[in-house]
Amino acid sequence: MQHTINSLIGFKMDATDGEIGEVKEFYFDDESWAIRYLVLETGNWFFHKKVLIAPQALLSPDWKNKNFPINLTKAQIKSSPDIDTDQPISLRQEIEMYGHYAWQRYGGSGFYAGGTAGVMDLPPIIDEEIIKANDPAVDHTKEDPHLRSTEIVTGYHIHAIDGEIGHVKDFMMDDQTWTLTNLLIDTHNWFGGKKVLIPVRHVKEILWADYKINLDTTTAFIKDEPSFKEESFTY
């Protein structure tokens, strides 16, 4: 099933011993488009601190009641490595976090949820980053170059082969694989307010310094796509 990322913001999250907060944004891998973390803002019990939760910690989501139960306790979250989500996340911080929670390590394709009972079963991947972690030549204090925020990328300008055609309004996510499948592009200043879905396979490159995403399609291709109306979209 497909969901817009914006529709998931505000979902409550429950640890095994009670509610812990709500989802504020998502971090994804800019190569595989896999969701790597849910950014959770905790409640009063943890001073509203933001923490990262990998999708492999999720139990079966309660889509109707907008709730993500997880297989962690409040104590586990409180004792997790201190990571400032307002700053770039380093590979070393991720390694420490995965070690703390005993999560399967992610690699070039996203993450691995394993097949434990009750936990979402997601496909295994090759752990390229952790191989690098054992390489003394790698500077683990540097930020993860492929970890991106859906909140920050929202608003990036979209350029087709023959010109600019809009900006990122939202993302579509597949809840079976927890990967981003489409960009929701707002063409308001170009095609009179039309919003269209463009598969991420059409992304040619992302120019982070320029806040721009280049596609391998033409403006005519975008213009011919059907208009996306969220109010009529069935989740």
Mean pLDDT: 86
* Secondary-structure class: alpha+beta
Residue windows where pLDDT falls under 50 for at least 5 positions: 108-118, 122-128
In one word, what is the shape? globular
CATH topology of the largest domain: SH3 type barrels
Beta-strand percentage range:
25-35%
Give the biggest sheet: 7 strands, mixed
| Number of continuous helical runs | 7
Domain module count: 2
DSSP helix fraction: 10-25%
Number of strand elements: 13
Write the layout of secondary structure elements.
Layout: E1 2-4, H1 5-8, E2 12-15, E3 18-29, E4 35-42, E5 50-53, E6 67-69, H2 74-78, H3 91-101, H4 128-133, E7 147-149, H5 150-153, E8 157-160, E9 163-174, E10 179-186, H6 188-191, E11 195-199, E12 203-207, E13 212-215, H7 219-224
Parallel strand pairs: 2-6, 8-13
Antiparallel strand pairs: 1-9, 2-3, 3-4, 3-7, 4-5, 8-9, 9-10, 10-11, 12-13
What does this structure look like?
There is one protein chain. The chain is of the alpha+beta class and 235 residues long. It has 7 helices and 13 strands. The protein has helices at 5-8, 74-78, 91-101, 128-133, 150-153, 188-191, 219-224, and strands at 2-4, 12-15, 18-29, 35-42, 50-53, 67-69, 147-149, 157-160, 163-174, 179-186, 195-199, 203-207, 212-215. Strands 1, 8, 9, 10, 11, 12 and 13 form a 7-stranded mixed beta sheet that branches. Strands 2, 3, 4, 5, 6 and 7 form a 6-stranded mixed beta sheet that branches.
Which features would summarize this protein structure in a list?
single chain, 235 residues, alpha+beta, SH3 type barrels, 2 domains, seven-stranded mixed sheet
